[in-house]
Design brief:
This protein is about 65% helix and about 0% strand. It binds zinc ion.
């Protein structure tokens, strides 16, 4: 719902005239998405996604987009540039814009420099189409966008799989983009529980394994749980930490997964993955309730540690 609002109210205004200014973006990215999150349009969308999910601004951008099944704005911009190309080519031949377009296209094809262009913008703009075609090795618009989308998703996949911070995410939470289905926990009505689940999934929490990374100077042992002296990771909090009582959560899980509490850690992790990918929002909500308690505790703890 929030994303729909964003698309209708914000995106349409933010992308006004992107057929022209989007060219700069195109040249910057050249089909490569490494610099993506530095562009103004993505910054805007990322900010909105983080606000919607209720996670901090240091959360990882691609994971945030993933959670909402949102693609980068630049894909929309590139599509609009290509559509604009067609609109120009389809103009009647008594229009100046059309003639300038044809001249420029011919000049480009023959490798002439084109300083005398009647509509200089068109040349730069035509170049940008070439950038798209060259970077994707495709000619028709639909294939170009398809390739760019696939490039982007591949990049995200690589990033998530190699990221230290998103280890748990890549193992347990990653969603299938092709299905375009947002994870079912988004249908839980209670906002704070939804947020607790997102924070846990994309490691935007305050567990020591993460907070220690932002500490300067870093002290050895900072990533350990102050009670159990084990690394305070997602698995530690979920299955081992002595700070939390998981009787209620385990009982609920065992209604569906027999003898859950007796399983080994990898088996338990696999079951949690199953639950998070299922449509059993009641059970996911119970898990979220537990996670919320762990976040609240860490928040209080970090706060008292700061003062
Ligand atoms: Zn612990």
């Amino acid at each position: 719902m929030a994303i729909k609002l964003f698309n209708t109210l914000v995106k349409s205004i933010a992308l006004y005239g992107c057929e022209i200014w989007g060219m700069d973006l195109l040249k910057l990215l050249k089909g490569d998405f490494n610099l993506l999150d530095r562009t103004f349009s993505e910054k805007l969308q990322n900010k909105f996604c983080k606000m919607t999910l209720g996670v901090g601004k240091r959360s990882i951008n691609c994971a945030v987009r993933n959670e909402l099944c949102v693609l980068p704005m630049c894909l929309t911009i590139f599509k609009r540039i290509l559509d604009y190309n067609h609109r120009l080519a389809d103009l009647s031949n008594d229009r100046i814009a059309y003639n300038a377009y044809i001249d420029d296209r011919n000049a480009n094809n023959h490798g002439f420099s084109n300083n005398k262009s009647r509509v200089n913008n068109i040349k730069t703009w035509y170049d940008s189409i070439m950038v798209l075609q060259n970077s994707t090795h495709q000619q028709d618009d639909e294939s170009i966008i398809k390739v760019l989308r696939a490039n982007y998703l591949q990049k995200v996949n690589e990033y998530i799989n190699s990221s230290n911070r998103l280890k748990f995410y890549s193992k347990v939470c990653k969603i299938n983009y092709e299905s375009s289905q947002i994870p079912s926990y988004h249908f839980i009505k209670n906002l704070s529980i939804r947020r607790a689940i997102t924070k846990f999934r994309i490691s935007a929490h305050k567990y020591a394994c993460l907070t220690s990374k932002f500490k300067n100077p870093r002290v050895e042992g900072d990533d350990k749980c102050d009670l159990c002296n084990e690394i305070e990771s997602e698995e530690h909090v979920l299955f081992h930490c002595l700070k939390y009582d998981r009787a209620k959560l385990y009982a609920k899980i065992e209604e569906n997964y027999e003898k859950f509490s007796e399983q080994s850690e990898p088996e338990k992790t696999a079951i949690i993955k199953n639950i998070l990918h299922s449509k059993d929002t009641k059970l996911i909500e119970e898990l979220g309730f537990f996670l919320k308690i762990t976040h609240d505790k860490e928040e209080v703890h970090n706060h008292s540690g700061d003062s």
